[in-house]
Design brief:
binds magnesium ion, 44% helix, 12% strand, 20 strands, elongated, five-stranded parallel sheet, alpha/beta, binds thiamine diphosphate
Length: 784
């Protein structure tokens, strides 16, 4: 192979094999240390997955020490985290201290985490399937940037996912595959650790042909790494074909069981099954037990040469690749192939045996080159240091700060509207942004799962176009067929249209929202969907936030206020989702000016270091807009609440509303004023921010002694200590009922607690007790 090409020679392979052994060792030892050596204070099993790690070590060795280039990005199978950290340690990017504290507070994380691990985690993983899809959308993001010249052709990386075979059961992978197909995604490799074992047991037989067919149908090149060089050499010998056939036709469970039992068991079984085949029997006889076991179990995914050849072939073009690498779960460990090995841990005796087998000296377990001579150490160091990936310097990038339009610039878009919905206001602000010629507006990217037009993104898309790598003119427009919506696809379009898969929306937002740190280019992603369907992609939303991706999520329309659309579309629990999701501040404005101010705030949060993402829960209900007496509301909108009608000091009652139900609150308030002229009307734009601020202020008092009044405390202060609160929102009443605890005041909380149905607003608000009468009744109930 030493023909001057990039192919590794024998010597290189020997060194890589040694590295592979040492990565296996360090990963295994890291887990062993956490479970058996480190002091346990709670008696809980620490865990870690030695079998899942061993399964992938060869693939990861080949990838990281040979194939990866600095600009390539990898989503590592979550339970192979110790292998990843061991490799990073070899590259000098992970400390021993972190490995020694694996799975303890402040140590290396159980699953690779972008935000918590100190080494170069490209994409967090944990919830299986999501990291896989993430790479497709990262690739799409890269294409989006490349079309603008923001990623140069020679800097384009491959987005690689290392996944388990059972992970392929996750439906989100296929949703992403279809979207990737539509978007002509390239530079994406999905490498399956095909050990035919899941967490519970061995997996269904011969699925690989089906997987291959699915990916080929989607336009991917499929590479099956089934056999090792050792096996191919054995199969070429007289009788060898029979061994190949045996493996080809063996059920997964039998193959796994024999793999676990070892050479003797292989010999017994094969002697029976191949009894009529003299050549095969002779071949088997010629092998020692250990060699026979190796021939039967050292599959393609454990053969460095096979893997590297496949990677080299794949590197020749940018077509998306699906690798099925046959492996053995727990490869070389005492529980290899055992169906229960997923959470299996080696005993101290077993790890000692592995240590001896790999030539690591007792007491030097943390020295990754322990027991090796100086020459080999130097050669291994050289192999690591000269790996292309070693040249990576800026795994985490930070894009320069972009000058943003002020809230006043965005407010202009809705200043003249006397009556408008928050959804329409959002559309107008987006259209205003589309008209701008500044750097910021060029960095806004919108995306939506087939509800672009119905969530009022149409105006923006008309001006800025739909993104696609292959331009496609709007045929309707060219044929002069009247349509409000231009749908021309261009490379520089700023809207990424998705099919109806909300999971994909959130993973797209995760990828676009990490553009600054992955590609060093700031994007301002704005994603829209119908509010109830947030639940559809909830894990992906959580995944995006967990990685600190930055975006603006606009969920509209929402609640019972969708009236005729009926119960299937009327969201109820989303305010609570917004409250409980870290990394995401949720708001529910009632008015257009609030919406514009919050959008400006959301764009600012996207690029602030201590910022985050923002969720706006909007509505299609047109409301008469308030006439503002002063500017005090602006700060309140962002802080989560302000007095629409301030109470008099010592007032006994306040009405509290959030969102599109504002007119009912106002009507009730006016009715009440006759009896209680001192009452107040509190507009809550964010139960989430208000609540988080209240708990944070409490924590600060206990932990730092810092006496800060929470916004909610300050706002409720003018009320009498025994005042009562009636809260109302078009969603779960729990989002606001907690306000009673701020000062120990009694509350009646109105909202949605059962599924809605079709109807008009007066009927529905009356039936579900959200109308002015209900609010007045609730006040009377509390006051009498
Ligand atoms: C969404 C989700 N569901 C369940 C789990 C728990 N879980 C972790 S690994 C695993 C099985 C993985 O099997 P496979 O993908 O084949 O990986 P292997 O360990 O065999 O390499 C399961 C069910 C998870 N992490 N994420
Ligand atoms: Mg598996």
């Amino acid at each position: 192979m030493d023909d001057g090409s990039a192919s590794p020679g024998r010597q290189d392979i020997a060194l890589l094999r040694r590295l592979e052994e040492r990565v296996l060792w360090l990963a295994s030892w890291t887990i062993h240390n956490a479970n058996h050596l480190r002091e346990s204070r709670d008696g809980l099993k620490v865990g870690g997955h030695q079998a899942s790690c061993a399964s992938m070590t060869t693939l990861m060795t080949a990838l990281y020490f040979r194939t990866l280039r600095p600009q390539d990005r990898v989503a590592v199978k979550p339970h192979a985290s110790p292998v990843f950290h061991a490799i990073q340690h070899l590259f000098g990017r992970q400390t021993l201290d972190q490995l020694q504290r694996f799975r303890s507070l402040g140590g290396a994380q159980s699953y690779p985490s972008r935000t918590k691990d100190i080494d170069d985690v490209d994409f967090s993983t944990g919830s299986v399937g999501l990291g896989v899809a993430m790479t497709a959308f990262a690739s799409l993001t890269q294409d989006y940037l490349a079309a603008r010249g923001a990623v140069k052709p020679d800097a384009m990386g491959r987005m690689i996912s290392l996944l388990g075979d059972a992970e392929l059961d996750e439906g989100n992978i296929y949703e992403a595959l279809i979207e990737a197909c539509k978007h002509d995604v390239r530079n994406t490799w999905w490498i399956v650790d095909y050990n035919r074992q899941s967490l519970d047991a061995t997996t269904s037989d011969r699925m690989f042909t089906r997987y291959g067919e699915i990916f080929e149908a989607a336009g991917w090149r499929v590479e099956t790494l089934k056999w090792s060089k050792r096996q191919l050499a054995a199969f070429a010998r007289p009788g060898g074909e029979a061994l190949r056939n045996w493996i080809e036709t063996a059920p997964n469970d039998l193959y796994s069981a024999l793999t676990y039992q070892g050479g003797k068991a292989w010999r017994e079984r094969l002697s029976v099954d191949l009894a009529g085949d003299k050549k095969a029997l002779k071949l088997i006889e010629g092998y020692s037990d250990d060699d026979l076991a190796l021939v039967m179990t050292k599959l393609g995914g454990h053969c460095l040469e096979t893997i590297l050849e496949a990677f080299e072939r794949a590197a020749e073009d940018d077509a998306p690749r699906f690798f099925i690498a046959y492996t053995v779960k727990g490869w070389r460990l005492p529980f290899q192939g055992h169906k229960d090995n997923h959470s299996g841990l080696m005993t101290p005796t077993q790890i000692g045996e592995l240590r001896g087998r790999l030539g690591v000296i007792e007491g030097e377990e943390w020295d990754i080159f322990s027991g090796l001579g100086d020459n080999e150490r130097a050669a291994l160091r050289h192999t690591v240091d000269t790996a292309p990936f070693a040249a990576r310097k800026d795994g985490r990038k930070v894009a320069p700060t972009v000058a943003l339009p002020g809230a006043d610039d965005l407010l202009m878009a809705v200043a003249a509207d006397k009556e408008i919905s928050t959804q329409a206001a959002f559309g107008k602000v987006m259209f205003e942004i589309a008209k701008r010629t500044d750097d910021f507006s060029g960095r806004v990217v919108t995306t939506s799962p087939d509800v672009t037009v119905s969530t009022n993104l149409g105006g923006f898309v008309n001006r800025r176009g739909v993104f696609h790598r292959r331009a496609h003119e709007d045929v309707f427009k060219n044929r002069r067929i009247p349509s409000a919506q231009v749908w021309s696809m261009v490379e520089t379009g700023q809207h990424v249209e998705l099919g109806i898969a909300e999971n994909n929306l959130f993973i797209a937002l995760a990828a676009l929202g990490l553009s600054s740190s992955v590609f060093g280019e700031r994007l301002f992603p704005v994603g829209t969907l119908y509010d109830p369907f947030i639940a559809r992609g909830l894990d992906a939303l959580n995944y995006a936030c967990y990685q600190d991706a930055r975006f603006l999520l606009v969920a509209t329309p929402s609640g019972l206020t969708l009236a005729p659309e009926g119960g299937a579309h009327q969201s109820i629990g989303t305010p609570l989702i917004g409250m409980s999701q870290p990394g995401l501040d949720s708001y529910e404005p009632a008015f257009a000016d609030e919406t514009a101010v919050l959008m400006a705030h959301a764009f600012d949060r996207i690029q602030r270091e201590d910022g985050g993402s923002t969720y706006l829960r909007l509505s299609t209900r047109s409301l008469v807009q308030p006439v503002r007496a002063d500017e005090a509301w602006r700060r309140g909108v962002i802080e989560g609440a302000y007095w629409m009608k301030p109470p008099a000091a010592g007032a006994k009652l306040a009405l509290v509303y959030s969102g599109a139900i504002a007119p009912e609150a106002l009507a009730a308030f006016e009715a009440i004023l006759e009896d209680l002229p001192e009452a107040g009307l509190l507009a809550v734009t964010s139960p989430d921010v208000l609540h988080a601020d209240w708990t944070a202020a409490g924590r600060a008092r206990w932990t730092g002694g810092e006496a800060r009044m929470a916004t909610a405390e300050r706002l409720l202060e003018p009320l009498a200590a025994d005042a009562v609160l009636v809260t109302v929102l078009d969603g779960s009443p729990a989002a606001l009922s907690w306000l009673g605890s701020v000062r120990g005041q009694r509350v009646r909380a109105l909202g949605m607690e059962s599924f809605g149905q079709s109807g008009d607003l007066p009927d529905l608000y009356a039936k579900y007790r959200l109308d002015a009468d209900a609010i007045v009744d609730a006040c009377a109930d509390l006051l009498v």
